[in-house]
Design a protein that fits this description.
Elements lengths: L9 H7 L23 H9 L3 H12 L4 H6 L2 H28 L6
Length: 109
């Protein structure tokens, strides 16, 4: 888990999420396995179980029309470039949010 964006390392994230490992079949891909469509509550619980950093990364990927499968299919050089871009944009967004919060201070005393 990442404590702050300053300690975020795109390469370590890629390694920890399996982006550097070859794709394997999940249980739902096996022959004869039933596929169950998750309901809204299950989807929400799964999303909320993720860390804030994982959610930011997931949202960034969706905004750039990417997912982990597409990242796995990229060459290591392409993937590293995407991860660097992601890191820079997320870091900038966090800095912008921090600056906006500072603007909300009531100066009337």
């Amino acid at each position: 888990m990442v404590d702050s964006i300053g300690s975020f390392n795109a390469v370590n994230y890629a390694a920890s999420t399996g982006l550097n490992r070859p794709a394997t079949k999940s249980d739902t891909d096996l022959v004869g396995a039933e596929t169950k469509k998750p309901n809204a509550a299950e989807t929400f619980k799964k999303y909320m179980a993720k860390s804030p950093m994982e959610r930011m990364i997931e949202n960034w990927l969706k905004a750039h029309k990417l997912d982990e499968e597409k990242l796995k299919a990229m060459s290591p050089e392409e993937r590293e470039g995407i991860m660097k871009q992601m890191h820079a944009e997320i870091e900038q967004n966090l800095k912008n949010q921090t600056e906006k919060k500072g603007d909300l201070v009531d100066v009337v005393a």
